Each structure stands twice: as structure tokens, then as C-alpha cells.
Fold each of these.
Amino acid sequence: MILAIKNIYKTKDYLVNPISKFVKYFSRKARKKRALIFRESFLLSENTKILDLGSETGSNIYDVLQGTPVKPENVYIADIDSSLIEKGANTYGFVPVLIKESEQLPFDDNFFEIVYCSSVIEHVTVQKEQVWSMYSGKEFKKKSFNRQKIFANEIQRLGKQYFVQTPYKHFPIESHSWLPFIAWLPRRILIPVLKVTNTFWVKKTNPDWYLLNQKEIAILFKEAEIISEKSIGLIKSIMAIKKRCADLK
């Protein structure tokens, strides 16, 4: 069956570009909606200190903060890739922070006014060298959720407020692969399917993500308001947002 699907897509390469444009169009719309939610959720000033956790180059938080008074020198971009954060520092003037996967960040409790974390927590799972060999969905879920708890605790330690977004577990189009219903497969089937689709499909991915539902993200962020972002009438992503009491008045 997998080979049949592969052959179908090989004979219809003309679909690849339209599919890519279609998905990217809806992704851009979603990011704009989330940026608006962020700007409406917090009181932002020149002195607001923000951490973008899992920032890559910081291009996302740069777009989110457009039109706000937040100064670049008060925006910290943290990632495990030194080349990405250095590029962000040079391009946007942000403060680069190199982090290691299993260590706390070198900041005191509540050092940041806001911690921003978008489409990152689902990747905080098992060691990267294990993602292709761990076929047990039960084992992967247990280990991943335990690491996500540690990551969530670090977000809550660092920030007085936070904004955490992650793709929704049950949305029909899986955001890392752009494949329909792929996230619904048992892991023992998911891994071999991705090995095949990665050879020809427009979007390649490692099976390093554990997608969350509303109940799980509420467990991780007990003090947060859980907001659902919808697309085509279905929940596409979920957000955990904590605001200071003063900002709720």
C-alpha cells in the first residue's frame, strides 16, 4: 500500500507546489492570528523583557512584536543551535542565549516578564538519536510527557507570564509533515510510513514530536488559560497563556 501511494505521488509531481503554497498560506494566516492574540494578551512597554524559547533565528518573535514598543535589547532568543541565534542577534539586535537540551537556563526565577514559546514543546521528547528506533507508542508517550513537564516547569520558573503554543493533536493535517491523519497512526506504523514519505513528499520530518491535547497542556500549565485556535472549523493549535493579575483588569 505504501509503495502504491509513493508511485501515485511520483506521477503527480505537479501537485507538490500547489500543496506547499496552500499549506504555507494557512500557516501565515495562523501566525498572524497568534501574533494578534499575543499583543492583546499582555501590556508591552520599552522595558518588557521577553524570552523566545526555541527561537531559531528569532524571526517569529520579530514579527509578533512588530508595532509594539518592546526594544530589541530586551528580547532574548534561546536555542540549541548557536548559528541560528547568532544570525538573529545580527539581524534583529536580539540577545542570543545558547542552551543545552537537559539544562536549566542561566537566569533567576521570574527574570522575564514574558516567556514566548511557539511550536516547540511538542519536540521536547526523547533523545534525538532514539526517535527513529523507538517504536513503542506507550514508551514514547511516557518519556516525552515527562520531559515536557520539566520543560513546562522551566517556562513557569523563568516567566512571570507566558505564551505557549503547540499544534493540536487531533487536527487532520499534521503540521510537521503536512500529511493527512498521520498523527493518528500508532507509532509502530508512523515510523515506517514517514521513512517512505520522506523520500518523495514535499515536507520531511523526524518523528520527534509528541502532540498535546487540551487536557495534557492544562496539566502542564495549571495556572494558564487554554485557548483553541481554529482553522476550517477545527482546532488547529492550542495555547496556554498566563497573564499577571494586573493585566487582567
Note: The chain has seven helices and nine strands.
Amino acid sequence: MEKQIAIGALAALAQETRLDVFRLLVQAGRQGMAAGEIAKSAGVAPATLSFHLKELKNAGVVRCRREGRSLIYEPDFSAMSDLVGYLTENCCEGAACCSDA
């Protein structure tokens, strides 16, 4: 992972509403959630949510697909795994603690 991609993902998640939405999507798993359902669960106005979902999508931590008339959002687990791997790369100078990371 390139440093700028990691910075973008971390920056997107470093905002309270976006972090809450991302964690909500992680709980939903690969089935994802419709935008309206996210707004209701997160207690965020639809227009505000649209802005935050766009930021998460542009940062590459959330994906979107269309199902009929609904937009379904889901976390990009592969991107998050890459981010965690980037953050923990070379941790503990290769000592045993890395097996717990």
C-alpha cells in the first residue's frame, strides 16, 4: 500500500460520523446496508450522510452497488486489511508480538 492511500483512508475515518458509519457497515458485513437504512441507524440526515459516504467511498474503505432503486454500501474489507497490514508492517522488529497483531 502506498503512503498516500493509507493517509487518505485514515483521514476519511478520522471524523466521528464517518467512523460511526464505517463501524455500522462492518457490523452489517458483506450484505451491506441501503443508504436510507444507514441514515436511520446512524441518526444522520440523508444529505449529510451522502457527503460522508462519498468521502468513505473516495478513500477506498467503502464500496457501493445498486440493487434496484437502492444504493447498498458495504465496507471494503480487502482495503482495510491492506491498511492494517501497512500500519503493522515491520512491527516489533519481527519479534513474536507480531503474531498477535
Note: The radius of gyration is 15 Å.
